[in-house]
Amino acid sequence: MTISTCEIVAVNAGHEYPIIKDGSGLFELKKSQHVRPLGLNPKTGYT
Fold first, then answer.
1. CB–CB of 20/12 below 8 Å?
2. Where are the beta strands (DSSP E) in the chain?
3. How far is the C-alpha of 11 from the C-alpha of 32, rounded, in Å?
């Protein structure tokens, strides 16, 4: 997490979306684009 920009960088290993609690006590579901896990398709290369 970058505190000065409030930016969070995370990975998703097939888990649910993260839920963030703000300073007022409210919760927010943070949705992002899901992609296929690395290694799922044997034809896909990795460098």
1. no
2. 19-21, 27-29
3. 10
pLDDT, residue 31, reads 84
**Residue partners of 15: CB distance under 8 A and separation at least 6:** none
Q: What is the mean pLDDT of residues 17-39?
A: 83
pTM of the predicted structure, to 2 decimals: 0.45
Distance CA 30, CA 10 (A): 11
Single-letter code of the amino acid located at 31: K
For residue 45, pLDDT beyond 80? no
Interval 19-41 mean pLDDT: 82
Name the β-bridge partners of 20.
28
DSSP, collapsed to helix, strand or coil, labels residue 2 as: strand
